[in-house]
Amino acid sequence: MTQTQHAQKILVTGATGTVGRQVVAELLARGHAVRALTRDPAKADLPAGVEVVQGDLTEPDSLVPALEGVTGVHLITFGGAYFAPLETGPRILELARAAGVRRVTVLHGGEATPLEEAVRADDGVEWTVLMPVEFMGNALEWADGIVASGEVREPFVSRLSAMVHEGDIGAVAAVALTEEGHGGQEYVITGPELLTVGDKVSAIAAARGQAIALVELTEEQAVAQWRAAGHPEPVIGFLLEAYGNTPEVGRTVVDTVEKVTGRPARTFGQWTGENAEAFKAG
């Protein structure tokens, strides 16, 4: 922290999720106090020093104790046991303003949601919408196949992705929650490079020190594989569209991470180095 900054207490919702854990870690690394909201504190498994509290975003009044004394809140757009889109945004924001919350970040859920719309419409807090592209962690879906047979089976292998390290999403969130100048911003967050499926597989192979075969599937073969894996039809439809016709935003590198945090976005090579063991047998 610079001399002009001071330690703050931040409430992180969705703190046990993929991005939420990174927001928590980055805030701690920057010297801030973290209060983590979860429906089941006993299962949170968060770092020492994190204040874990019980609450449910589908029941906004359960957040009243959690909001006491915090200056910023990180929000997700889905909640409850079935992760339905939250309809409680206006009440959550009303309670946050009453508690003196100054800044809010919201993790974009991939489409318009009632909670994000409520955040964008609120002029009582400094809000920032975080819009990450494909997570580097999605590559972990290949781990079982790589360990079992030394191969990755995917369609559309020439598709391009500006995939982002989840830690960089957490870093952008932490800055937006604790520093001036990010209110009213919509931040698309990407990694520093465009990667094909082959590029990703090569990076994993280098990290684990063993070759990996890339098997390109037809659309029909891919659909059959996804169905066998238990994916529901809406998810399969989404995957076909996302992989076969990747939106421009998902295949365009932007420098948000460096602009906001002051350091370059982490590469997929760095991510594979951190996660190499997941792709090794035994």
The N- and C-terminal alpha carbons lie at a distance of: 41 Å
Backbone CA Rg: 20 Å
| Structural class assignment | alpha/beta
User: How would a textbook summarize the main sheet?
Assistant: 7 strands, parallel
Jot down its keywords:
282 residues, alpha/beta, seven-stranded parallel sheet, 36% helix, NAD(P)H-binding protein, Ergot_Alk_Oxidoreductase
Ordered list of secondary-structure elements with their pairings:
Elements: E1 9-12, H1 18-29, E2 33-38, E3 51-54, H2 64-67, E4 72-75, E5 78-79, E6 84-85, H3 89-98, E7 103-107, H4 114-120, E8 126-132, H5 143-149, E9 151-155, H6 166-178, E10 185-189, H7 197-208, E11 213-217, H8 219-228, H9 233-244, H10 256-261, H11 268-275
Parallel strand pairs: 1-2, 1-4, 2-3, 4-7, 7-8, 8-10, 9-11
Antiparallel strand pairs: 5-6
Helix pairs in contact: 1-6, 7-11
Pfam family, one: NAD_binding_10
Protein name: NAD(P)H-binding protein
Domain NAD(P)-binding: 14-108
